[in-house]
Design a protein that fits this description.
Elements: E1 2-5, H1 13-27, E2 33-37, H2 41-47, E3 54-58, H3 67-71, E4 76-81, H4 84-95, H5 99-119, E5 122-126, H6 127-132, H7 134-145, H8 151-160, H9 163-170, E6 181-184, E7 187-190, H10 208-211, H11 214-226
Parallel strand pairs: 1-3, 1-4, 2-3, 4-5
Antiparallel strand pairs: 6-7
Helix pairs in contact: 1-8, 4-5, 5-11, 7-8
């Protein structure tokens, strides 16, 4: 089995990656499980060769050349999504770069989502459901992947990958042994979980539209309409004309 976690950036895709790994390990302990991050479509094609092991890949850049693999069921995708305005603000806070850069990345993510919606080729999981109903989200992914376990096992996976547990672990990533660490683009992350220092930060739901300026709000609105996601546009009455404080933090993760 090849699983691809290809959701929006800062939408819980690292969580879905770890859930898929734990589900595969628990449901099929006789098979080896490998997981890593890679955006190269050639890697996906190579991954789909006959294998006895299970493979979980995280990516934020599904290339159209690999669409047929998803459509044909050679790859089982898990697509996580989040309020697009929150995605842009959270990405700026986490990685820097401009709002325009992340709006461009958002367009690419929406096109992947459009493909999955049109072909029914992914398990679609919202960021809000990951935070508010993690066990239900785990069950949804397990059902999609055809991995069946006892409710107690599902509960253990949801608990072990809770926001609190992952946040605590991410704060200690730099203390892991060198064999587990990967250094790339100025960041250090754990090769097993893909979590990096401060990966999980404080945030909430619906804060992005209040923190972006009118120019970038308009650009995101236009983007959502052009890509067929007008239903995600934030109503004007949720955009105060003067700055407001952010809501009480609920937690955020990629």
């Amino acid at each position: 089995m090849v699983v691809l976690c290809d959701g929006m950036i800062r939408s819980g895709s690292t969580w879905s990656f770890n859930v898929a790994l734990e589900l595969a390990r628990s449901a099929e302990p006789h098979r080896r499980v490998f997981g890593f991050y890679n955006d190269n479509p050639a890697v996906l094609f190579a991954a789909c060769r006959p294998r006895f092991s299970n493979l979980v890949i995280k990516s934020h850049g599904l290339d159209p050349s690999a669409y047929e693999l998803c459509r044909a069921g050679a790859i089982q995708a898990i697509y996580t999504w989040r309020d697009p305005y929150d995605v842009v603000v959270s990405s700026m806070r986490m990685f820097g770069r401009s709002a325009d850069h992340w709006i461009g990345a958002l367009r690419n993510a929406l096109r992947v989502w459009s493909f999955h919606r049109a072909t029914g080729s992914a398990c679609i999981v919202s960021y809000e459901s990951i935070i508010r109903a993690p066990l239900a989200s785990v069950n949804s992914i397990a059902g999609y992947l055809g991995l069946h376990m006892e409710p107690q096992q599902m509960g253990q996976i949801a608990k072990g990958l809770s926001l609190e547990q992952l946040k605590s672990f991410s704060q200690q990533v730099n203390n892991l042994g060198q064999a587990r660490l990967v250094r790339k683009d100025g960041r250090v992350y754990d090769r097993q979980t893909l979590l990096h220092q401060n990966h999980i930060r404080d945030g909430g739901f619906g804060f992005g539209a209040r923190l972006l300026d009118s120019e970038h709000l308009s650009k995101i609105d236009t983007l959502l309409r052009e890509e067929g996601f007008e239903f995600l546009c934030t109503p004007g009455d949720r955009r105060p004309s003067i700055p407001e404080a952010e809501p009480t933090p609920l937690g955020a993760m990629e």
